[in-house]
Design brief:
By secondary structure, the protein is mainly beta. Helices cover 12% and strands 46% of the residues.
Length: 302
């Protein structure tokens, strides 16, 4: 997922035209209904200044079958993840992976993440409905830039139809936008790819001192999943903003630069790049009472 950074704390712009309690109730019902709807496809398209940047298509067929295809860099990088139960298989088209077989690894984190449909946690500033659709709007500003998210759901089923978001500068120019679409799909069953190589991921919960220097962890990191030289995921009791500053300082200290940072109510994403143009992707997002952090890489430059 992509996120947008606002320079200062945002405040709500507009009063709700109807009671916020109704908006909150609609939001709860929409998230509950969408999580229960399946099979379902979610297509997320992210754009920077009007240019396609990243597209993620994730299909879910109950109870635990998942297929995700991610395309980035204008289609130069395409990755595919297949999940059946607690097992995942991954393959990609980048130069580093050329000619390599698919990898097999622990995929138990994909199902709860797939069923976690997100809308901004703050109360909606507008909500309305007719016989066909429910519409919710979240609009915020830092005094200069305006960020807005709009969600539509089916009025009868409450299942999400679409979510659109954008960030505009003080002159009204669009800095960033994202579009998410949901649709019903036929049920499917994942067939494991032939020749997959099982990754040696070590213990499910790694020790902090075992993690690579380029995949730093804060001291309170918990429930750590670690694949040497490739991936780390953990939960933290810190808020998103504190963790963002932690990683900015850590990577700056080892000479890595932050690129394409984005943050909104869903969380934060960025890419950290070293002098050789190798890179690590970072995702930080609220997850219940904790904050979930995912670091992937280092990936070699194309």
């Amino acid at each position: 997922m992509k996120y947008v950074v606002l320079a200062t704390a945002m405040v709500l712009l507009l009063p709700a035209p109807i009671a916020l309690a109704d908006c909150a109730s609609d939001t709860t019902e929409i998230l509950k209904a969408t999580a229960a709807a399946g099979p379902i496809r979610r297509v997320s398209t992210y754009l920077d200044k009007g240019t396609p940047d990243h597209v993620v298509t994730r299909d879910f067929s109950p109870p635990d079958q998942i297929k995700e295809i991610s395309s980035a860099q204008g289609g130069k990088f395409v990755s595919t993840v297949l999940v059946s139960g607690k097992t995942a298989w991954s393959s990609s088209t980048d130069q580093e992976a050329a000619g390599k077989p698919p990898t097999e690894y622990d995929g138990s984190a994909y199902l709860p993440d797939t069923l976690l449909f997100r809308l901004p946690p703050a109360p909606a500033t507008e909500c309305s409905s007719d016989s066909a659709e429910i519409k919710l709007v979240w609009k915020t500003t830092d005094g200069k830039r305006i960020q807005q998210y709009t969600a539509w759901a089916d009025a009868k089923t409450h299942v999400l139809i679409a979510v659109d978001g954008f960030l505009k500068d003080e002159k009204g120019n669009t800095e960033y936008e994202e579009h998410v679409r949901f649709q019903s799909i036929p049920a499917f069953t994942i067939t494991p790819p032939a020749g997959a190589v099982k990754l040696d991921s070590g213990p499910t919960y790694a020790k902090i001192e075992d993690v690579d220097p380029v995949l730093p962890l804060p001291p309170e990191a918990d429930k750590i999943t670690y694949v040497k030289g490739s991936f780390v995921r953990f939960d933290s009791s810190q808020k998103v903003a504190a963790l963002v500053e932690f990683y900015r300082s850590k990577y700056k200290a080892i000479g890595w630069s932050e690129q394409n940072p984005r943050q909104n109510d869903y969380g934060y994403t960025a890419t950290f790049v070293d002098v050789g143009k190798n890179w690590i992707s970072a995702e930080i997002a609220p997850d219940g009472q904790f904050t979930r952090v995912k670091l992937s890489g280092p990936h070699k430059k194309n």
